[in-house]
Amino acid sequence: xxxxxxxxxxxxxxxxxxxQDEVSRLEAARTALTGGRRRGRPRGSAxxxxxxxxxxxxxxxxxVRSTRRGGNTRAVQALELVxxxxxxxxxxxxxxxxxxxNYLYRVLPRLASEGQVKRDGxxxxxxx
Length: 128
What we know:
It is a single chain. The longest helix is centred in the N-terminal third of the chain and has 33 residues, at about 1-35. The mean pLDDT is about 80. A two-stranded antiparallel ribbon has the order 1-2. The protein is mainly alpha-helical. It has helices at about 1-35, 50-65, 75-85, 90-95, 100-115; strands at about 115-120, 125. Helix content is about 65%, strand content about 5%. α3 crosses α5 and α4 packs across α5. The protein contains five helices and two strands. The chain has a domain at about 75-125: Arc Repressor Mutant, subunit A (Orthogonal Bundle), CATH 1.10.10.
């Protein structure tokens, strides 16, 4: 049995060497084609982030979010359109607002949970 294991390990090592050679050839070909430009992280670089750098990134992201518009601008715009056109559908709203409808599929249910609009079939209506 130990002979089988030794043979299997040697076969695996030989195959790994072949694959490493092929990786080297492919990387050289890619470099020749792209002029040395690489995309992404260099091979072998650490992918781990320290807690401090993660905290800095989180803080920076929070700052970016807080400097954006006042918030709910699309929700306010959608609510105004629903008041003007009771029974309007999400695709119609999206077309009028010149945005993709996927955003409105989040906004309108939130407005409904706040009691500002209600859904009747596919259409949305303002609450009294």
